[in-house]
Specification:
- The structure is a homodimer of 264-residue chains.
- The first copy, chain A, is of the alpha+beta class.
- Chain A has a six-stranded antiparallel β-sheet, sandwiched between helices. In chain A, strands 1-2 form a two-stranded antiparallel sheet.
- The first copy, chain A, has helices at 18-33, 38-45, 49-61, 78-89, 92-108, 150-156, 161-167, 183-196, 238-258; strands spanning 65-67, 74-76, 111-118, 121-128, 143-144, 199-202, 209-217, 223-232.
- Chain A contains nine helices and eight strands.
- Chains A and B meet through α1, α3, α4, α5 and β4 of A and α1, α3, α4, β3 and α7 of B.
- The structure holds a DNA duplex (30 and 30 nucleotides).
DNA sequence: GCGTCACGTTGCATATTACGCAACATGTGC
DNA sequence: GCACATGTTGCGTAATATGCAACGTGACGC
């Protein structure tokens, strides 16, 4: 057998189990493509079809992936959701924020997200949809740059100026014509967020997407998370954003209170 | 090496990758215990500590698990959330519910409907007829007020009291002499639905129409949809409703499981 | 309706890879 | 400070995962 070195992805520390590593890669490939066949997977891994088939088959027996029909393509399975449930169960922020986020979703009819700072990006931990009918997009687990979202700007607002500069020193991608990538401009915006206690962002990440965010703080006044209400611009209009903003700020204060924060 | 036969858990179809299977077991063990050490894991798998250590280490490198401190115990990682986000993104209530709804239609001989909450009304997404002979009515695409149907009451049962009041604050039409329009009365009924886990409604929307509904839930225990069995009262009698109720609740649990819900 | 193709699956032989062992770190409690 | 428990790491062995090739199946096109 000849194995291609340098999978480019994971530098195995010392003793790493190859097939397990490949299994995880397979899960990520399927997560990225949504639906993947054995041949595609094998090509991506650089292994023989049979190898991919066997690993996928193992994952299927354990419910982490499912196949459409017999001998069909593979997709992620419900076993993942059970694991995810156990994951969020240990996250304090999700536990404390969820009931309040649900209420906020009911009140606004829009989608609520909870994000935290993680390695210079906004990591989305939880999402509650206002209208269960059409799950527009699921951000959970995604890492989004800080400069293009309201959550990101709120999370930045909890940092020192030096911290902000550090967080923004990577390349800032442009997503739409409205994306702000100038550091001075961003610093000004973050200062405004600090003053206002919330952040409103329109069309900066996706055209047609409007979002408003507020900080969740702990007893030391640190910003530990950001919570947002977001929806399509045609529905989530200025007036509604303004109404949602007040509810959101109150909800964020409620959650903050659960972490020992007190208004001063 | 001596491997213990009969892992008792998974009967490997034909070619199954042992270490991948073990990795999944490890994830499940950690999910169950919340926090697990290498020694515990090794004992549970019936393998040597070193084996468990290496697999866990691989999972850690890929973000599926994390360890508390250096050389600490392991817990599930945030990488799981990325996969989960991709999983829920593809989940579609109609698609997941349809095979189970079809089976339920065959078992009961009556009509099955699936509805979700949408802007303060029940939006009917799918319908499966038991006996094609008398195609009663096609509800798909219709929006029905929440107070007059069993599906509506189930959907209300997933909301907070404030949310229920908001949803009911519009004018509540009277369809038949049996339609309930009193808010306190409806609140009591919804509380009963929460307790019972299902809703039975007779003649409230149309005289001669009997329906029983049960909630479909996700991993967070949110009510994401309602599924119903309904038929004409002269045929869908009390006894039959009672029998259908048990099948329905089981079917709803099946669908819920597909969204990561677990009985607790 | 038949031939061709593409795809997923499965015996089998090989040797690569994962395993158990034992020794080594590193805390932790008595 | 000693004994213990726990997580990690070389090392040699062989069990296990892999590639190969053949098979089963379904889809498409001629």
């Amino acid at each position: 057998m000849s194995y291609s070195f340098g999978m480019g992805n994971s530098e195995t520390h010392s003793g790493s189990v190859q097939s397990v590593d490949r299994a995880v890669t397979i899960l990520e490939v399927i997560a990225r493509t949504g639906l993947a066949g054995v041949t595609d997977i094998a090509a991506e891994l650089g292994v023989h079809k049979s190898t991919a088939s066997r690993i996928v088959s193992t994952l299927e027996a354990r419910g982490l992936v499912e196949q459409d029909q017999h001998r069909g393509k593979y997709r992620l399975g419900l076993g993942i959701l059970r694991l995810a449930g156990a994951t969020t169960a240990r996250l304090d922020i999700v536990q404390e924020a969820r009931p309040i986020a649900k209420r906020l979703a009911e009140q606004t009819g829009e989608t609520i997200n909870v994000a935290v700072l993680s390695d210079g990006a906004a990591l989305y931990l939880d999402q509650v949809s206002g209208n269960a009918s059409v799950q527009s997009h699921n951000w959970v687990g995604q890492r989004i740059p800080l400069h293009a979202t309201s959550n990101g700007k709120v999370l930045l607002s909890g940092l020192s100026e030096a911290g902000i500069r550090t967080a923004l020193e990577t390349k800032l991608p442009t997503y739409t014509p409205h994306t702000v990538t100038s550091i001075p401009h961003l610093l000004t915006e973050v200062a405004e967020v600090v003053a206002a206690g919330h952040s409103i962002v329109i069309d900066e990440l996706e055209v047609g997407l409007t979002a408003v965010s507020a900080p969740v703080r702990n007893a030391h006044d640190d910003v530990i998370a950001s919570i947002s209400v977001s929806g399509p611009g045609f529905r989530f209009t200025n007036t509604k954003v303004d109404a949602a903003k007040d509810l959101l700020v109150a909800a964020a204060a409620d959650i903050s209170a659960r972490f020992g924060w007190r208004e001063h």
